[in-house]
Amino acid sequence: MQAVAEKLYTTEEYFAFCEKNEGRFEYVNGEIIEMSGESVAANQVR
Fold it and tell me: Does the pLDDT of residue 33 top 70, yes or no?
């Protein structure tokens, strides 16, 4: 079995990616990771 190389992104590529795609993403050590969606309960301040 062959390993699949993951592409590491620059910060400029990350910002361009975010402009083209809907959703929430975070940038960690060159990787773009999709974040989970928001919920009403998570947004309430207690």
Answer: yes
